[in-house]
Amino acid sequence: METSETQKSPGGSVRFGSLWNPETRRYPLAILAALALALAYPAPGIAGLAWVAPGLLLMSGLGLRWQESFRVGYVAGLVQSLVSLRWLLEMPHPAGAMAGWLALSGYCALFPGLWVAISAAIVARRSRSEVGIREVAGKTSVPSDGWRGAVEAYLSTPWIRRVSIPVALAAVWVATEMLRSRLLTGFPWNPLGVSQWRQVPLLQVARVTGVYGLSFLVCWASIAFAGACTMVALRPRERWLWLAEARLPLFVVLACLGTGFYRVIEQRRADLLRPPRTLRVSLVQPSIPQTLLWDPGERDRSFAVVSRLTDAALATQPDMLVWPEGDFGLDRDRFREVTSRFGGRRIPWAFSATDVSEEGAERSAYNAVFLGVDGVVEATYRKRRLVAFGEYVPLVRWLPFMKYLTPIGEGFAAGSEPVRFKVGNPTGGAVAAPVICFEDIFPHGVRDHVGAEVDFLLELTNDGWFGTSSAQWQHLANVVFRAVENDVAIVRCANNGISCWVDALGLVRDVLGEGGPDVYRPGFRTIEVPVGTGRNGGTWYRKYGDVFGWGCVGYAVLAAMGALRGARGV
To answer: Beta strand 277-285 with 523-531: parallel, antiparallel or unpaired?
Structure first.
């Protein structure tokens, strides 16, 4: 009988081996699952590892009490977050970067911990009748070899009941992602489905369910595959029964792939038969380090870099010019200087700057995107979702000392509503919906910006905060799903990458620098974006939002309540 208590030898010394208790034995497997999941995202972006990680993570928590399984899941979540969010250490404010990296990773780790605890309880509850699991003093007790007992219980359940368990656990996974995307203003960075961002046919699931549908599919298949592997390993005489474990999710994955291939082929054929009208958009990427953007003495040099690239971009005769997020030394005089270079052409110019509003004694600053045409600002969009400690300091009115933890001071106020930019000439123009940086990772937020008349989303971003790290690629991976969810192209203009556009199918196109190290360097690219297609109003997700996600939340709550009743002996 194993015990988690340390034991002493006759001489009084502590036996180190006794510390290797049933809980601590699980940490290597949990950490392996965490590393697999972290590596599934860019970089390196080995998407296949995501189909393995949830199953391994579940196996690390089976047969433990809920407190123990939560700790195991928390450690796994912490390792995964520390690895995948390592780009936070690139921020040019070392103390704040380290604090933010540790704090955000610690916060994000709560959700895998919650998932493992609930999932282990659900497996124990639904499998209890098949093995001699006893209830003592209102708590669930398991055999001495708790993991083996839990797995045997799972494998002994009838097929129809056993296949429902991975479905329930996948729903709980989605529920934790939904919670993370909304709690404390939300941080929906890298949900599980985002790991598959390059699998274009499979992405089409998001047209109905959003990114959460793909998270569900990957988690479901991973858990079913883990069950199949344990069947092969522990019951070799019944090894062919693994088909019963894996065939249902395998069938659904293949059906989704087939449907996705059909949509991609049909869309390509439609574009060949009736080529859409295009808008030539020049994207300027100055690649100016964040420390120089903060330095007032570097404003002239920053503006000179952007001006040189602007002149080269205008030589390609674009229909629209876009600068990335950041003011780059722009002021009123330089605004007139830039517009004078358009040679009398009414070229719409989207650029970013601080917008200041003063009402009486109240003064508010906004991170904003402006649309200038012929020297006149025709529209302004103020960023609605701000980055904590990057654009605003939480609780600064009550804890004013916190503004000294970051270089932003008191930061920005949040805008109130989406805005549409009308670009191009009156007869051949288009409508763009601007978003700024961090906003585009919120599935439910981007829906507000897209309407039937919108031709493309226009994203201005500055990922130069994070040097030449994986942050740019992870950001792009998340953005791809907003295109598919809303059936709308997304044009991205970034300070130091990734400047490109994403078509409505989720395919990344015309990357400045073509995906190599040049993606982080200064340059410009003129792209041709299809407009006037009228396709962007029909997805289920854009019309109805997170119906699938909220359904998973409801199912997860019911399943967790059932598991909790079982743990209490109800």
So the answer is: antiparallel
Structural domain spans, the chain: 23-267+548-567, 277-354+361-385+415-532
443, 474 contact by CB (below 8 A): no
Give the amino acid at 548. Answer: F
The dotted CATH code for 277-354+361-385+415-532 is 3.60.110.10
Between the CA of residue 486 and those of 217, 279, 408, 448, what are the distances in Å?
Answer: 20, 20, 34, 10
Return all residues near 344 (Cβ < 8 A) that are at least 6 apart: none
Write down the H helix ranges in 157-241: 159-162, 164-180, 200-203, 206-209, 211-234
- 210 CB-contact burial (10 Å; exposed 0-12 / middle 13-18 / buried 19+): buried
Question: How far is it, in rounded angstroms, from Cα 195 to Cα 208?
Answer: 18
pLDDT tens for residues 234-272?
877 766 666 777 889 999 999 999 999 999 999 999 888
Residue 248 or residue 388, greater confidence? 248
What's the DSSP call for residue 460? Answer: E
Side chain identity at residue 423, one-letter code = V
Nearest to 455 by CA among 378, 535, 510, 382: 535
- What's the gap between Cα 16 and its chain centre? 42
Give the separation between CA 133 and CA 220, rounded to whole angstroms.
26
Question: In sequence order, what DSSP letters do the residues of 115-154 get, joined into one string?
Answer: HHHHHHHHHHHHHGGGTT-EEETTEEE--SSHHHHHHHHH
Tell me whether strands 508-509 and 349-359 are parallel, antiparallel or unpaired: unpaired
- Could you give phi then psi for residue 235, rounded to 5 degrees? -135, 70
> Average pLDDT of 100-127?
91
**Burial grade of 120 (CB within 10 A; 0-12, 13-18, 19 or more):** buried
